[in-house]
Amino acid sequence: VAAAAAVSFAFAAPAVASEGCDDGEMVIKFSHVVAATGHPKGDAATMLAERVNKEMDGKACMQVFPNSQLFDDDKVMEALLLGDVQLAAPSLSKFEAYTLKYRLFDLPFLFQDLNAVGNFTDSDAGKGLLDVMQDVGYQGLGYWLSGLKQFSANKPLIEPSDANGLKFRVQTSDVAVAMIEAIGGNAQKLAFKEVYGALQTGVVDGQENTWSNIYTQKFFEVQDGITETNHQVLAYLLVTSTEWLDSLDDETRTQFLTIVDEVTKAGNDAVAKKEAGNREKIIEAGSVVRELTPEQRAKWVEAMKPVWTQFEGDIGKDLIDAAAGSNS
Ligand code: LMR
C-alpha cells in the first residue's frame, strides 16, 4: 500500500510552479495538455500560478499539471465537475458535448489573424459566449489565444487536392471533420498526446496545428514539411466549474478573477511573438515551411468555405457575421 501511494504521489506531483501548499490554503489545480514552457498556454499557466502563489499566499495555492500528465482534455471536463481540478484550458474545438456555439471558432478562414480573434473575444458577442455553459456547470473565465493553424503531412501540400485520400488527425470537433472532408481527406479524432505516435507510425498521414504545438510536440520530425495555410484559429477557454467559483467568498473571487484577467491579457499579448519564434525554430531544425501564393491559398479557402453554411444553424448567423466583422 505504501509503495502504491508513493507511486501515485509521484505521478500527481505538479511539475511547474509547485511551491508546496501550506495548511489552510485553498488548492487550485490546473491541468493542461501542452508543454510547460515555450508555449502560449504553458507559459500563461505558469504566469497565473506564480501570481496566485505570490499575491494570494496564505489564502490560495495553485499547482499546474502540464503535458496531459494528469488528464487529457476529455477527462478534464469531468474532473472539473468532480472537483479533482479547478482550472483547465481546452481548445474551443473540444466543447461539443456541452455547447455547439463554440463551433464558431473552428470555421475555416474565419479570422485573418490573431488581432481579429482578439477583437471578437473582447466584444460583447465574444464575452457573452463565456457564459453559455453555465447550465451544465461550467464558467468560462477568459479566452487564451494560441495561434493560427498550419497543415502538415507526409508529402507536400500545396493545393487542397494534395490532401485527397490522406488521413488527418483532428481535435474532437465535427467542424474539423467537415473541413478535412471538404478537401477530400479522412479525419480521425485523436487526443493530443497520441498525435506524435500516430504520425510516426502512419496511423495518420497529417495533422493541423499551431507553430507552437508543431514545434514543442516535435510533429515536424515525422512530417514532410509544414504548409503555412493559417486556416483556423486555435484558442482556449480558461474554464472552471460554476460550483467552485460560487464557493469562493466575494473578496477571494474578485482577487482571483482580477489576476486571471491580467494574466489573460499579458499571455495573449505575448502569443504572436512566441508563434513566430517557434516557426523559426522549426525551420532551424531543418524542416521545410511552404508558403502559399495568394492563388494557391484562395483554392484552400474556396474548398473549405462551404463548411460555414453546414454549421450556421448550430452557431447562428448573427454570431458568424459578428466574428467575420472583426477582421477589419
Ligand atoms: C490539440 O488537441 O491539438 C490542441 O487542442 C492541444 C492544445 O491544447 O493546444
Automatic annotation (TrEMBL):
Endpoints of the signal sequence: 1-17
Species per Swiss-Prot/TrEMBL record: Stappia sediminis
PANTHER family to which the protein is assigned, alphabetical: C4-DICARBOXYLATE-BINDING PROTEIN DCTB, PTHR33376
Gene Ontology biological-process entries: C4-dicarboxylate transport; transmembrane transport
Zinc-finger as UniProt keyword: no
InterPro entries documented for this protein: DctP_fam, TRAP_DctP, TRAP_DctP_sf
Protein name, per record: DctP family TRAP transporter solute-binding subunit
Keyword Kinase: no
Family under the similarity heading: Belongs to the bacterial solute-binding protein 7 family.
Protein keywords: Signal, Transport
A Gene Ontology term for the protein's cellular component: outer membrane-bounded periplasmic space
Pfam families recorded: DctP (PF03480)
